[in-house]
Design a protein that fits this description.
- By secondary structure, this protein is of the alpha+beta class.
- Helix content is 51%, strand content 17%.
- The protein is elongated.
């Protein structure tokens, strides 16, 4: 038999277990230190454990925009809603899509929970439209608005405020129908690009070949009459009419709108939008130091500032109410200030009638933009903190029971080896806890009830890896090897089995995470994370520890309580000597005929 080459590590070499143990110890210390440095000493809990509100929003298809509900718009809406909620100071909120047309918003219990709930589904489509006509209506019911609350007004940077500096003037139904009709007619005129004047012969040919069509003035007159009729019939004190008016209107089309003016409802005829919410760069609710009232300040983009200067310059030359522009949010007029000169500063403010919350809400929505889709609340689920703590307690009890059963099994079957498995489980638990705590701060991972279930399932997966390795070692001992070479020879075979098993578990977790949404993803994420940690613990802790304990007398001598007693395992030592004896007997048998011939 050829001797092994010099310098090659023989089979069964123990390697350097101290390095692996030092590495995993350093990792545990670093993760624990990071947990304390970030201030996140416990995993972040989901709303099913900590309490809060879960809102399911369904995207609605608007007329003419049936294809608007798509992945791009849904992802854009998720981003805007998330920025709105976080802009209110609501930490740890979760916003994610579910299916094709649903968005799930999970808001943890906190001081701004209701405020965030009011904003998540608000479209926040903002337009600045010129006022063509306005009329006051019925008084607002006392519960709808505070008594004596002033109408909002707006002003631009470096310009006079609306007329008297308080609120915009009111135009009453006394405005003549002729004046309204002229304004409506001018708004309905579609601008066309200048074209060369045709020659007389070309005009004659065109007149001969073209069929007679209604004239543009006649079409305009019909549109004006229709808009005037709708304006006259509109009753903004009627909730059903108020909810329907001004919705699903293109920005370039005139429209009707409702809103509040002091203690009464008012209705407007508005021209095409001159500036929209996308032209607002920044907005926030602040206190006006001069008046001590809450206002919303706006800063326009460069393009928006040019648009705003142009429209205010055009309105300044007109008479009331055509010198006003309406600030329209989601179809409702929230302000209709008048202007006397072009506002060129690139800034504007909306003032009057705001509370701190309403000013901050409007500023927050304008800052983060309008949602590309309209949404309706499909369901709202509120979880109390008491219910969440009960669920967490039940989950922890289930985990403790599962862990206890695993420990009892290990102690009964593996005896001394069970302590190695238990310490390995403790190491895995520390790594899992610290990583989950850091992920809560880093990527917003929230530990919900399904995630707790995933951690409980992972106990069995981790214990299974230990069992595979222990059984391989026992197999080697049954073949007559001593413990130290058995530990090393068993490792390559056990390693392959552990890697294949964990790969299958991780693949299942990854597929589950990809194809599911909501809380089930928490289960898949936790299962995948703990499966990866199982590989880390087995390779960097369990195997090196087994290499070290194989050098101790208690385990290497095969103590009955070590779990590696050769007699209890059914080994017949010395197995190698019996093999050599068997070979010698075979050789003696083979040489017997020769001996007989010689005899």
């Amino acid at each position: 038999m050829a001797a092994p080459k010099k310098g090659r590590r023989p089979t069964g070499a123990q390697g350097r277990p101290g390095r692996a143990l030092a590495f995993i110890l350093i990792a545990m210390v670093a993760l624990t230190a990071g947990m304390f440095l970030t201030g996140q000493t416990t995993p972040r809990l989901g709303i099913d454990l900590a309490g809060g509100t879960s809102i399911t929003l369904k995207a609605k298809s608007e007329p003419g925009k049936e294809n608007a509900v798509n992945e791009t718009n849904m992802n854009t809406a998720v981003g805007i809603i998330e920025r709105r909620v976080n802009g209110l100071g609501v930490s740890e909120a979760e916003v994610q899509t579910q299916g094709r047309d649903h968005i799930i918003v999970n808001i943890p219990k906190g001081s701004n929970e209701q405020q965030a709930r009011d904003q998540v589904g608000t479209t926040a489509q903002l337009y600045f439209r010129p006022v063509l006509a306005v009329a006051d209506g019925a008084p607002i019911a006392p519960e709808a608005t505070p008594s004596g609350s002033p109408s909002p007004a707006a002003s631009g940077s470096g310009s006079p405020k609306a007329q008297d500096g308080k609120s915009s003037p009111s135009a009453t139904p006394s405005s003549s129908a002729t004046s309204q009709g002229r304004a409506l007619s001018e708004a309905l005129k579609a601008p066309s690009a200048p074209t060369p004047s045709p020659s007389a012969s070309e005009s004659k040919k065109a007149d001969d070949t073209k069929a007679p069509t209604p004239s543009a003035p006649a079409a305009n007159d019909a549109a004006v009459a229709d808009l005037q009729a709708k304006f006259a019939a509109l009753d903004c004190s009627n909730e059903a009419q108020r909810a329907a008016v001004g919705k699903n209107v293109k920005p370039e089309d005139p429209t009707l709108a409702c809103g509040k003016r002091g203690a009464t409802w008012a209705k407007w005829v508005l021209g095409p939008a001159a500036v929209n919410g996308q032209d607002v760069k920044n907005a926030k609710g602040v206190i006006d130091p001069q008046r001590g009232a809450w206002i919303v300040t706006m800063q326009f983009t460069d393009k928006g500032a040019d648009k705003f200067a142009k429209i205010t310059g055009e309105l300044a030359a007109k008479q009331s109410p055509q010198n006003q522009f309406a600030i329209v949010l989601d179809g409702d007029v929230i302000s209709d200030p008048s202007v006397s000169q072009a506002l060129t500063g690139g800034n504007a403010e909306i003032s009057g009638g705001f509370t701190q919350q309403s000013a901050q809400d409007l500023g927050n929505m304008l800052s983060y933009g309008a949602l590309p889709l309209s949404f309706q609340e499909d369901s709202v689920t509120t979880v109390t903190a008491a219910l969440g703590s009960e669920q967490l307690k039940a989950g922890l009890i289930a985990g403790a029971i599962g862990l206890a059963l695993v420990v009892i099994y290990l102690l009964a079957y593996y005896r001394g080896l069970a302590f190695i498995a238990i310490v390995s489980l403790v190491v895995s638990g520390i790594l899992t806890y610290t990583i989950m705590s850091l992920l809560g701060k880093g990527i917003g991972f929230a530990l919900n009830l399904p995630a707790v279930c995933g951690a409980i399932v992972a106990i069995g997966i981790t214990a299974d890896s230990f069992i595979v390795y222990f059984e391989r070692i026992r197999d080697e001992i049954r073949e007559g090897r001593t413990l130290r070479p058995a530990v090393e020879r068993a490792w390559p075979r056990a390693r392959r089995t552990i890697l294949v098993s964990d790969f299958v578990s991780f693949l299942a977790a990854a597929v589950l995470f990809i194809v599911t949404v909501g809380k089930v993803q928490g289960f898949a994420f936790t299962l995948g994370l703990t499966t990866l940690l199982d590989v880390v613990v087995v390779f960097l802790f369990t195997k090196p520890v087994m290499t070290l304990v194989a050098r101790t007398k208690f385990f290497s001598s095969g103590h009955p309580w070590s779990g590696l007693d050769p007699k209890r395992l059914g080994a017949q030592p010395p197995l190698r000597r019996s093999r050599r004896t068997g070979s010698g007997a075979a050789a003696a048998t083979a040489s017997a005929p020769v001996d007989a011939k010689e005899a």
